[in-house]
Amino acid sequence: xxxxxxxxxxxxxxxxxxxxxxxxxxxxxxxxxxxxxxxxxxxxxxxxxxxxxxxxxxxxxxxxxxxxxxxxxxxxxxxxxxxxxxxxxxxxxxxxxxxxxxxxxxxxxxxxxxxxxxxxxxxxxxxxxxxxxxxxxxxxxxxxxxxxxxxxxxxxxxxxxxxxxxxxxxxxxxxxxxxxxxxxxxxxxxxxxxxxxxxxxxxxxxxxxxxxxxxxxxxxxxxxxxxxxxxxxxxxxxxxxxxxxxxxxxxxxx
Length: 254
Known about the structure:
- This protein has helices spanning about 5-25, 30-45, 55-60, 65-75, 80-90, 170-180, 235-250; strands spanning about 110-115, 115-120, 125, 130-140, 140-150, 155-160, 190-195, 200-205, 215-220, 225-235.
- It is an alpha+beta fold and about 250 residues long.
- The N and C termini lie far apart (about 75 Å).
């Protein structure tokens, strides 16, 4: 077989593979291109927290109705978290013109699972209760701690600082914060604020029946040094609140 014929066959096979690839896409290929551009900007500003929270933010913002199918497809193709979506999945769309290939320095991000955590700001947990897992992400000189239920990133509780304690009773502050963090600024007529009190904790919950994200901010009554910032989903948040109670019951008092 001569070289020209061999190249022709290779091109035919590549075209067939591309057709099959396009058939497998859960959304229009151009939406993926927009997603990659969005992640390129957001990851550059916020970094990756070992979840697909930024990807989900994009899907919610663009009213992608089969968002869970998209997340599953991304995971199946190497996009287990936001930086992996950009590092691994974008390459699959090189045939598009645009997008222009962008890179994110994932080698600068170090992640590890922890079985316990003791910090210099007063947080201590000697055992991570099931079904939670704890991941430490080291980004430069910063350390990010995220608790997550199981393998899915549908419920993530991150350690955060500077709880706005003076705004505890200010509903508008919390709804504005929900809008800022989700970037969902329309269809907000049913946005509500709820307050909960556990044994040693206060919590503020913001949700709406019209959007997926549910945000919870949970602070220990005896400290303002740290708090938990939880992102979950409307369809599962009631069960996740019970798991949150289990999680905070394992936090030790120093």
